[in-house]
């Protein structure tokens, strides 16, 4: 199977990686996710709860941010570039398995197209986790619509998945901080051609 070939417009020694619509979708989604995580911490960590106070307000902010979380992506689907990138993220080929094996063996040659296997797995996981959090959150919010057993189970899943999401997001943020060029790609939309050839050798800018 031939790896997918992605295209990007060259900009001198830099290449276009993300469009403005994609960058703003990521920024707003990250902001809403950050609000959800921060307010959740204020609700569940006693020291923060005492420091912040106003629990009812924090609950409302948490609920509103959670409900709004899918909105940036839904609006972003009007962008052809975002839809194309979601298609690339949704395809897992032999080169992605080779990338994972290279990571496990700590070998330098890691074949990747526009997105590597780690980014694809993270995107799929966080999308699924967000939908589960939204569903369980709605069950906890509208208590009159579901039986007590469902609400109890939803609370258990919501709380523990929230902790898992916090850990995964911390790892995601740490990896982003370790790669300034990747951050610049999300900030300005372009990356250096040398970085693209080194980190994503199967991507054809």
Molecular structure report:
The protein has 205 residues and is mostly helical. The chain is 71% helix and 4% strand. The protein is built from 10 helices and 3 strands.
- The mean pLDDT is 89
Class derived from helix and strand content: mainly alpha
- Computed over alpha carbons, the radius of gyration is 19 Å
Number of strands: 3
Q: Strands of the largest sheet, in order across it?
A: 1-2-3
Q: What is the N-to-C succession of helices and strands?
A: EEHHHHHHHHHEH
Note the topology.
Layout (H helix, E strand, L loop, with lengths): L9 E2 L2 E3 L3 H25 L1 H7 L2 H14 L2 H6 L3 H10 L4 H12 L11 H25 L6 H30 L2 H9 L1 E3 H7 L6
Antiparallel strand pairs: 1-2, 2-3
